[in-house]
Amino acid sequence: MPLTCSLPPVEVKPDYQKDPTSWLPVPDQLVASCADWMNANTAPLFTDWFEKMGAPALDLQVTPLSTRVGCLALSQGQAFFHHETRGRIPMPEALAPERTVWDEGTLPVWQQGVLTEPKYFSFFLDTPLSPYNPNYRRKWRAHELLHGIVGFFWHPQMTRFEAYMGARLDELLPIVHWYGLDEAFRPRCSKHEGQQLYRDYCPECEALACPWSEHSPEWLEQKKPLAITWVNRAWHHFSEEWKACLQELNTGQTVEVARPHLNASSDAVGYLYSHWPRLTAWSFGSWVEHFLQDGTDYFSTLPHYMQRIADVSQQMVAGDCDMNEETYLRLRNRRAIQDLGYRAFLALEWLEEGTRAAMRAETALLPLMEEGGTLSQTLLNQEVPHEQCADWMNAVVTAVDTTIGNARNVPAEVTQSFAALGYSWWSDKEAESPLEAAMNEQAQAIVQEGLESGAPQGWERWQKHHNADELQGFLASTEFQQPGRLIQRFYAWYNAQPNADAETVEWFHFESWLHQEPLRDEAAERFAVLPDALTDLLQQKGTLRSHSTLRIERWSASLISEVLGETLEEPDASLAAIISNGEPRLMLLDDITSDCLTTVACLRPLPEEFLEQHTGALELLLQHSFVVWFPVPRT
Q1: Quick one: which of 73, 84, 177, 521 could link to 78 by a disulfide (CB 3.0–4.6 Å)?
Q2: For residues 55 and 422, what is the distance between their CA atoms, to the nearest angstrom?
Q3: What is the predicted pLDDT for the residue at 543?
Q4: What is the CA radius of gyration of the chain?
């Protein structure tokens, strides 16, 4: 069923040489248009569409302008790959970043159940498909899609400065949306209403996320003034950055805009150092030549690219956006073909030119790259049966496995990860096609490593009761697709299984509980100290509070015995936990320490009699940072 997403048009055509506000709606008009659209209660119409993309539909329905971004992405066939089932192709040394930004190479690494990535090398601006990382806030979905909507700058003879400018321009609209447009009508907790979170994570704010169609007309009316403020901030940011980019284009010199927490020029330099070798490699140029089209997927001059960004900026907030399923599926297949094509060229980079292994692989793969390029060009405007696309992808997977997989000096990750595309939406209607079988097998191996990393005790017990292939049920579940840490999602899924082992369930619950947000109390790590005397707490010479990562839960005596080495007479007891400098810290609670924690959280100031009755408990809690103290500066 076709769907149209409409906002009032702007009559002025974008001109990249002018200030963006000349082609954008004024903030109060845009906010009024969004409120009218939200009052029409059309959000449920988008749910089925967004679910086709491979990420939670809610993430694109919390604010009206995220929904608009999602609709633009649909019209271009965009979709997500799942971060935790995507196998990355390692970079040969010649394609690795010029400057090392972490010590783990170019591949993501599981750390305590989170698949972490190197800064500047975690996301390729040229990727045909966007990453869905469930560990990231919901705002990331629209941000990542916007990168795909604007395309990217590239030319085979580009200079380093041009590549730097291309990276800076690519990030502009995603940042304008994140820090401005996507805050308009976004529910926030009382602490963060009207505030910019930057890198901070607020569980309360995330928990308020709901489809915008659920808000009442009264709520929308109340939020209009703040929404106008956010759009004003967005347009101001856009204008400042656009002016700076025009200066860079005209002078060939970097121009920084002074802005707290955000330095677009510095970030673009970081991206240049990380990606210049990759962007100038044979594999990248060959991929562009075979699979992409100048003016559609990428832009070969900076003025042309700036005009593209100007056009998209207006499309985000004005006019009609039309979608139909046939076009979406056709263009999504095109992006999948482009995605696999680049992976094949990267795999070929590992073979030494002129060797028998290289010639054998090239003989098998280069004709397939020609065929894939033809498919990509055809799919822009014409229908190609899905089965034909699937056959091509299966052939590429088989060719890589049988040629590069047997070559010397090629890391095992190249072929082990090659078919792990991370597509939850891909199906060629064959239960055991080479691609689907390899995707499932490799995805299972990646997730198994993640569970072992985040919940070693739970995973050890799980293996005693279950076959590893049962993980496929988790990978196909709605829980796996939800936001949050892997072990928390696995616990939610496993706890609902009829054959779940109770002890294993508790261990997954415990290990996920230890790693739930928040994971850091930055103020406590920086400034908390022990009071000189507990009487300072009565004299109000500072602030006393619980550690912001404090969590309390009851656990079985057997689990507590194994964790703390303490034998309990009761069947269960309460544990308190905090995360201090990245490490969990546990304390067994009795009635006195529990009462002490409750009182500290609720009473200001502390009664003198409380201090007399709880001196030992309070000293213990302060010593281990479960309660923290911030003295006032001396005067």
Answers
A1: 73
A2: 11
A3: 87
A4: 27
